Amino acid sequence: MFSASLPPPSCTVLLSAVKNVIDIMNNNVTTVASSADDIEVEQLRIAVLGAPGVGKTAVIEQLVSHEFTDDYRPTTRCRCYRPSFIINEQVYEVTIVDCPPVTYFPATSLYEWTDFRGYGLRSANAYLLIYDVTDDDSFRFVRSMREQILASRGGHPQDVPMFVMGNKQDLLQQQQQLLLQQQQQQSTQQQAMLLSTSFTAEDRRNLPTRREVANIVKKQWKCGYIECSAKCNWHVVRGFQELMKMVHSIDAGHRPASIHDALLCNRCDIL
Ligand SMILES: Nc1nc2c(ncn2[C@@H]2O[C@H](COP(=O)(O)OP(=O)(O)O)[C@@H](O)[C@H]2O)c(=O)[nH]1
Ligand SMILES: [Mg+2]
């Protein structure tokens, strides 16, 4: 049976006659390996997982097509998106897999074959775990998924690149703005009453919880972490860039001491 103890090595393809790569991020043309006829292109598969409705499809479509829709259209078929990235002059062709709801990580190839055929979950090179910052349950989902991935794939946790994105940050901002407006309109006495309402209590509970989440993910899990909004296009590109830098570090044989090291050492552009 297929053993998934470590991520499979990325497949290296030689593309001939590719000389110039347009660096869209900087609006200028960067020549990569202009003196050579061949450019090595690494191919990677990133599986995007998270509870239904957290915005997985929205995040991917914002990255790839710069589009967002408020309508919720549940994903019913597995769909692949293929952006390319350049990290330190290394070109990566990435297959981002957007799956219909995946309620558990397949512990064996048999489970994968029966329930998630064609998704390539167990052989993915990296995982993007998305939760909704306004929904605690969706973070519990991500925590459980991470544990299942580690239990299933084994090896050192830092050898299985995982990146956590807290999406829908715009909703938190909306809540905070509303709270601020309410507070400004209230008298001191009314403010005291406001502090005891369930909305305010919820909001106060959110702040330390968010800090805790960031700490757990970065310090305990040693995963990359970013809060973003697919709706407002906040930090979506940066999240993918950080994920790719992490993957690149591990791919190049460096197990970064921290995600921070991987971010400092590498430069990443999206084609
Ligand atoms: N306010 C807000 N809504 C979002 C955001 N991202 C996704 N949504 C909405 O959340 C719903 C579910 O998004 P979708 O990408 O289909 O979730 P998926 O099931 O995880 O793929 C849709 O109605 C989206 O418009 C975001 O950043 N902010
Ligand atoms: Mg979807």
What features would you describe in this structure?
It is a single chain. The strands form two sheets. Strands 1, 4, 5, 6, 7, 8, 9, 10 and 11 form a nine-stranded mixed beta sheet that branches. A two-stranded antiparallel ribbon has the order 2-3. The chain is of the alpha/beta class. The longest helix has 23 residues, at 198-220. The protein is built from eight helices and eleven strands. The protein has one domain: Rossmann fold, CATH 3.40.50.300. It is 39% helix and 23% strand. It is globular, with a radius of gyration of 21 Å. The site of guanosine-5'-diphosphate has 21 residues, from helix 1 and helix 4. Magnesium ion (MG) binds at residues 56-57, 75, 98.
In short:
One of its GO terms (molecular function) is GTPase activity. This protein has 271 residues and is α/β, with parallel strands linked by helices.
> Total helix count?
8
Report the CATH topology name.
Rossmann fold
CATH architecture designation: 3-Layer(aba) Sandwich
By DSSP, the count of extended strands is 11
Which distinct ligands sit in these coordinates? guanosine-5'-diphosphate, magnesium ion
Topology:
Layout: E1 11-16, E2 20-23, E3 28-31, E4 38-49, H1 56-65, E5 79-81, E6 84-87, E7 90-98, H2 109-115, E8 126-132, H3 136-153, E9 162-167, H4 169-185, H5 188-195, H6 198-220, E10 224-227, H7 236-251, H8 259-265, E11 268-270
Bound molecules: guanosine-5'-diphosphate (GDP) and magnesium ion.
Characteristic key phrases:
271 residues; alpha/beta; Rossmann fold; two-stranded antiparallel sheet; 8 helices; 23% strand; globular; disordered N terminus; binds guanosine-5'-diphosphate; binds magnesium ion; Ras-like_GTPase_Reg; GTP binding; Small_GTPase; P-loop_NTPase; Ras-like protein family member 10B
